[in-house]
Amino acid sequence: MLKTLFKQMARAPQSPASAAPAATAAPAAPAALQQFGALQLRECRYGWMLFEGPFIGKCFELYGEYSEGEVALMRQFVRPGDTVIDVGANIGDLVLPLARMVGEGGRVYAVESHSDVFNVLCANLALNGLSNVKPLNAFIAKSAESADTSSGWGEHAFVSEKWAAPFVALDSLNLPQCRLLKIDVDGKELDVLQSGADLLARCRPVLYFENDQAEVSEALLGHVLDLGYDLYWHAPPVFSPANFLGNPVNHWAPDIVTSAMMLGLPRELGLRAENLPAVEDRRDWWNLEEPRIVAQTTADFSVRIVPKS
């Protein structure tokens, strides 16, 4: 979920051939925006996207891309042939670039619990011929008993009123490897992590998860710290002036809309995020005046992953 971090801490609702190399520059004349009922279709940085909505959808409409700061961070860890999991895959906004990163020999498991959003996700995979992505319409949780499908967005924010989603534990996927686990499920991140205890112990993936609800943050951070991860605060803006469509105007100005994410690095990797603030204690919370968080909103910022000294 997205936040307007640098004006107010506000919840912002959102909708919801084989792999090819990642696109890096806009074509001379991207195809025109097309309307399909409530959805729009546009040629974007990583392929064709169907979309709607005031944040993710608006990014694709105006910029032909979404949150390139998140993509750039994940690209530092994901390699061809890797397996990655995206829990809370939405319409595939980050699935498409991940699919390009892992290549034909890799796998992306794209998990989306809401059937309406899942349908758009599948359409976007089909439009781009991405056979290296496995879409899963499921609600990730330790068990049906532990699952909580309600949220501040209403009773059917995570699952459709008409079509229920099965409850699935990450461990039940029985994956032999996992390089990266990305989670964005609006406060349910801890249950997702607990459902993959064996996966995390065996594969030790890099973690990239949302942390935007103070009331659950201490338990979430404490759980990941206890698993032997170093944690860092990452707040990448969804708008970049160097976007695919070359549109220099921030639609949300003067606000800076960012994601509110945590990077988790297994301590045994011997790596650190040099220019991101680290979590010192499980009771820590976002400090929006911290210079290393403010710096993340500048156009030329990039995360530096370096060996521990």
Helical content (DSSP H or I, runs of 4+): 10-25%
Extended strand count:
17
SSE pattern, N- to C-terminal: EEEEEHHEHEHEEEEHHEHEEEEHE
**In total, how many domains does the architecture comprise?**
1
Strand order of the largest sheet: 8-7-6-11-12-15-13
Q: State the fourth-level CATH superfamily.
A: Vaccinia Virus protein VP39
User: What overall geometry do the principal axes of the alpha carbons give?
Assistant: globular
Radius of gyration: 18 Å
In percent, how much strand structure appears in the residues?
A: 15-25%
CATH architecture: 3-Layer(aba) Sandwich
Secondary structure: elements and pairs:
Blueprint: E1 2-4, E2 11-12, E3 34-36, E4 39-44, E5 47-51, H1 53-63, H2 68-75, E6 83-87, H3 95-102, E7 107-111, H4 115-127, E8 133-136, E9 139-140, E10 167-168, E11 180-183, H5 189-194, H6 197-203, E12 206-210, H7 214-226, E13 229-234, E14 257-259, E15 261-266, E16 271-273, H8 291-294, E17 305-307
Parallel strand pairs: 6-7, 6-11, 7-8, 9-10, 11-12
Antiparallel strand pairs: 1-2, 1-14, 3-4, 4-5, 12-15, 13-15, 16-17
